[in-house]
Amino acid sequence: MNQLWIRWLVIAGLSLLLASCTKPEAPDFKGIKNLKVNVQGLNNAQINGDAIFFNPNDRQITLKQVDVEVSVEGQKVKDISREYDITAEPNSDVSVPIDVTLSLEDLNMNLLSTAMSMLNGAEKKIRYKGKARVKMYGVSFNVPFDYEDDVNIAL
Fold it and tell me: Can you give the pTM of this predicted structure?
């Protein structure tokens, strides 16, 4: 009878321990901040910004990799894959730097339209779609995101 009682206590204790461990939640992609587009000559555009993620967990997570497809005006222009080792504290935002160079040809702009766009401060719709690889409790998982913004390209 004593062994049965001990087994029951062990099972109850393990069940309580497992129930108290919550499954990690995927971080939320909140958007891009500090987005800047710098036209470099008449051939390239440098896009910089910070991707903002929110860690909804009560434990810290580590951002390991971000894979992004960049589209301009609905046309895919570049795939970006970067590895990181950025720690996100519990219940807080984390900023991930984004830096990409696109040719103006990729942006579907020729020399004349580029000059006119820069003078007029034209806006282009840029979409970032991809996934972030995060690690928590030693387990890695992917977090999909999809963000679109109008970006002003001006001198």
Answer: 0.62
